[in-house]
Amino acid sequence: HIRDQQLGLVLLINFFIATSFLIMLRIAVKSIYFMLTRRMRDVDTVRVLIYGADQNAIMAKQALENSTESKFVIVGFIDTNRGKLNSYIERKRVYHVKDLAALKDKYAIDQMIFVKDHLGSRDKKVIVERCLRLGIKVLTVPPASEWVSGRLRIQQIKNLRIEDLLQRAPIKINNDKICDDLCGKRILITGAAGSIGSEIVRQVLRYEPQMLILCDQAESPMHEIQLEIEETFSSSNVVIAIADIRNLERMHQIFNDYRPELVYHAAAYKHVPMMERNPGEAVSTNVGGTKNVADLSVLFGVKKFVMISTDKAVNPTNVMGASKRIAEIYTQSLDAQQSVHLVDTAAGVTKQVKGTRFITTRFGNVLGSNGSVIPRFTAQIAKGGPLTVTHPEITRYFMTIPEAVQLVLEAGTMGKGGEIYVFDMGKPVKIVDLARKMIQLAGLKPEKDIEIVYTGLRSGEKLYEELLSDGEKVVPTHHDKIHIARVNPLNHESAKRLVYELIALNERKNSSGVVRKMKEIVPEFISKNSPFEALDTVG
Hints:
CATH superfamily of the largest domain: NAD(P)-binding Rossmann-like Domain
Helix content: 40-55%
Structural class: alpha/beta
Number of domains: 2
Oligomer: single chain
Distance between the termini: 133 Å
Number of helices: 17
Largest sheet: 9 strands, mixed
Low-confidence stretches: none
Mean pLDDT: 84
Strand content: 15-25%
C-alpha cells in the first residue's frame, strides 16, 4: 500500500510538472508570437499628425483609425488656433506647429496629413517647409464631401503635389462680364487639345456658349478631350474640327461652316530647343498659322480674337520666342487698321462699333503643362533619378493652368483692341529649388536618395524670363493681376510686307535666311546658346 501511495504521488507530481511546463511553454510561445507581431506591426505602422482640429480633420482621423486597410497611428493634431492648443479631441492632443521638432523626436513622426480644405491657408507653406526640413512626409486627403459613399479610401491619400504648394490665393474674376462675352455665343478655340486650350474649353463650357468649335491637329488628344466633355458636361453643342492652322483652305472651311463670333487662339509650337533646330516649323505655325486665323477672323467678322502668347516673346533669345513676338506684331497691326463704323441699335441709339478686336495675353510657364519641367521631374523621381536641371541659377515664373485661363477670360472682357495684357506671375522660382522640393515631397532626400545633375543651358534657353521688354511700359487695369504693356504697334502694311517676306523665305527652306529675317522684324532678338548667334555678329 505504501508503494502504491508513493507511485500515485510521483504520478501526481509528474502531472503537475508536465502541465506546468506545457502551460509555461504555451505562454512563452504566445509571448514570443505577440512580441514578434507587435514588432512587425510597428515596422508597418506609420505615425502621423493631422493638420487642423475642425470637423473635417476629426472625420479624417476617425476614418483612418476605423479603416481595416490603414496602417496609420494618429499621434495628434496640429493647429495654429491658440484657443485649441493643448486641448484633447477624441483622446488626441492638439499641438502647435512650433512643437513639430519635439514631436518628431519624441514620437518618431513619419508623416503629416492635410485635409485639402486647409490647403488654402496662409500658414500652409510655412508648415510644409518645416515638415520637409524635419524629414516629415506631407500627404493630403480630400474633404469628406469627396469620399466614396461616405468612406475615406486609402487610395485617396496622396502625396502633396508641388502644384498645391505653389498655388496662390484664388483669383477673383468678373463672371458677369465674362458671361456677356461667352454666354450664347459661337466660339472657336485653336489648339483645343493642348494644356492651355483644353482648359479654355473646360472653363468656357461653364458659360453655356451656343456652339464651341474645338480645332486641333492632334487626333488622340482631341479624342480624349471629347470623351471628357461627354462625361463631364453632356454638351451637344461642341464641334470637333481636326485641322492644321497652317492649312488656309481647311481653316476657311471651318470659319465658313460655323461662323465663330469669338476666337481663342492657343495653337502654337512652344518647345524652345525643338524650334531652334526647326525654325521653319516655328515660322509656318506660330507666324503663318496665326496669320491665317487672324485674317479669317477679319474676313468673317469675328468680334474678338484673343491670342495666347508667352513671356519668351520678350527680348527673345530663341526662334520660338521671336516667332511669337512676330505673331503679336502682326495681330496688333491688324487691330490698328480695323475701321470703326456707326450702327443703329435696337434701342434707336447710334454707336461706334469696331471691326475685329485683337487682344494678346502674355504669361510665363504653367504648372503641369505637357512636356514641362514638373511632369519631367515627377517621371525622373519615379525612376529613382537623377533629376536633370540645365543650370543652378535658372529661374522661371509659374502659374497654374486654371489660373492662367481665368485671367485670359478676364482680359478678354477688358480689351478694346490692340492691347497686350501681361499677367502678374508672382515671384520667379529657381528650378533647382523646385527639384529639391519635389524630391522632399516624395519622402526622399535630395542628393542622398536622388541626385540632381546639371546638364547645361539648352539651345536658345536663357537664365531669366522677362514679361516686358526694355521699350515697353506697363499700365495697371482694374484687376490687380492683369496689366497692359504699352508698345508702339507697326502699321499693318509694313507688318504684312515683312511677314509675307518671312513666309516666302521659309518656303525656300533657308533656315539662316529665315532667322536673319526674324531678327530684322524683331531687332531685340539676340540668339543665345544657338548656332544662329553668328547672325548677330556685326561686320
